[in-house]
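Retro notes
What went well: the complex prediction finally ran end to end.
Inputs used:
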Amino acid sequence: MQTNKFMDERKQTSVPKKEISPLLWGLAFGILFGFLLQKGGATKYDVIVGQLLLTDFTVLKIMLSAVLIGMIGIYAMKTLGWVELYPKSGSAGKNIIGGLIFGVGFAVLGYCPGTIAGAIGNGALDALVGGLVGIIIGSGLFAALYPRLTQGILKKGDFGDLTFPRLFKVNDWVIVIPAATLIFILLYWLEQAGL
Amino acid sequence: MEFLTTVRWSPYAVGVGIGILSWFTFLISRKPLACSTSFARASGMIAKLFSGKKVDLQPYYQKIGLGVDWQWMLVVGVIFGSLISALLSGDFRWQWVPSLWSAAFGANTLLRVIVALAGGICIGFGARWAGGCTSGHGISGTLQLAVSSWISAICFFIGGILTAHIIFTLIG
C-alpha cells in the first residue's frame, strides 16, 4: 500500500511536466517554421496567388525542396529504425473532392492554414479578420456535417493509410530514389526555364 | 548574422530548412508538421463557449479531441516566428488589401475581407474533408510518400490554379 501511494504521488507530479514539454516543442518548431515561411515570402498573398497564376514559382520551389530533403532524411531514419511514419488514410471521395474544395479556397483566400498564421504575424489584416474567421467557420461546418458524410462520400474508394512503397510492394528506396531524382529534375528544369 | 535581417532567402534555402525541421519533428515530437486540424479544434473550443460540454460529444470533435495540443502550439509559433522574421528584416507592415488584389479589384477593404472570409470557409471545410492542408498533406504527407497526400496536394493545386485563373482573368 505504502509503495502504491508513493507511485500514485509520483505519477501525479510527473503528469503535468509530461504535458507541458510537447507543447513547448510545438511552439519552438512553430517559431522556426513561421520564420522560414516568412523568409521565403510564403506568408504573402501576392506570392501564393502568383504561384496559382503560374507567374511566381516560389511556393512550388519551397515545397518541392522541403519534400526532397525531408523525404530522404525521414526514410533514412526509418531505415535506421529511429522514426516511424504517420501516413494519413485516404479515399478518392475524401482526397479528390476535399482537395478540390480546398484548392478553390486556396485561390480565393490566398493563404492556407499554415501560411495564414504566418500572414497574421506579417501584419496581414485580411488574413486575421477575414481568412482566419472563415477557416474556423468552415472547419466547424465540416464537423457538423461529418456524421452524414463519414459513411458515404468519405468512404468512396477507400485505400487506407497507403504509401507508394507499400502500394507497389517494393523496398522504400526503390521509390525514394526515383522520386528524389524526379523532384530534383523538376526543380532544375524550373530554374533552366527561368521560372 | 546578416542572414537574419535579409528580407528574402532563396526558396531552396527555405525549403531545405523546412525539410530538416521536419526531421526533428519526427525525431523529437513523433509528429509531422501540420496545421489545419488546429483550426477545427479552435472551432470546437469556440462552440463550447456558447453551447457548453455537449460540443465534446460531436463525433468529429471526439475524433480529433478538443484542447490545446502540440499542433495548436505549432500554429501559434508560426505567428510569432513570422513576426520575428518580419521585424528583423523590416518587412512587417499592417495591410488590409494585398497589392496583387488591389491592382485587379481595387483597394476596397470590405470587399477583400468578405472574399477572404468566403475563401477561408472553403479552405477550412476542404481541409477537413481532405484530412489535411498544404503542410500536413502538401509537405509532410508527400515526403512520407503517402498516396492520400499526393492525391490531395495535386488536387489543391488543380483547384487553386483553375480558380485563380478564373478570378483574375475572367472577373478581374
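What we learned: Chain B has a mean pLDDT of 97.
What to try next: split runs per interface for comparison.
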